[in-house]
Specification:
alpha/beta, membrane, 3-stranded antiparallel β-sheet, single chain, G_AIG1, Rossmann fold, 8 strands, 3 helices
């Protein structure tokens, strides 16, 4: 059985629980990251779809959390992909976005198997916005939240090394 992170309805940290038949059988991956890091593109790639918003602009594309239940890799088992608003927002809306994210996860999603934290490999430093977001999530969901985080990198350029794409 896989572990699921049950998101409580109160401000108290929720305990990690083991998935059971009474819980939603749909595995859930929730993507976190800075504005423009490629959260929507990553989800579109994972699900082989174009339903998650993307933008080539500097402005935030995702201003409200969104989720879809789709077949993994286009033809696999059903999974829920959750695209959250980016932190380090171009218009300084981080506080509101974090509140909306927490509310959406608690009311609409309820449980998450994996938080995929995406970092832009072309940016050598981790900023205060990332730290603030992780601290806010930890304060709401408790320290066990961190055991459900996977770190991924976008914009990794292997072509400079002659590696096949």
């Amino acid at each position: 059985m896989s572990k699921r992170r049950k998101l409580g309805k109160s401000a108290e940290p929720a305990a990690s629980t083991v998935g059971s038949a009474s819980e939603s059988p749909i595995p859930t991956i929730c993507v976190l990251g800075a504005t423009g890091v490629g959260k929507g593109s990553t989800l579109n790639s994972c699900f082989r779809t174009d339903r998650f918003g993307t933008s080539g602009q500097l402005d935030s594309d995702t201003v409200r959390p969104v989720s879809f239940v789709l077949p993994w890799r286009g033809n696999g088992a059903l999974m829920r992909g959750v695209d959250l608003c980016g932190f380090s927002d171009s218009e300084g809306r981080d506080t509101g976005f974090i509140e909306a994210m927490v509310d959406y996860l608690r009311t609409e999603v309820e449980s998450v198997n994996c938080f995929l934290l995406l970092l832009n490999s072309q940016e050598p430093r981790i900023g205060m916005h990332l730290k603030d977001m992780l601290l806010a999530l930890r304060s709401v969901f408790g320290l066990p939240f961190l055991s459900h985080v996977i770190i991924g990198f976008t914009r990794w350029d292997d072509s400079a090394k002659g590696a096949p794409c």
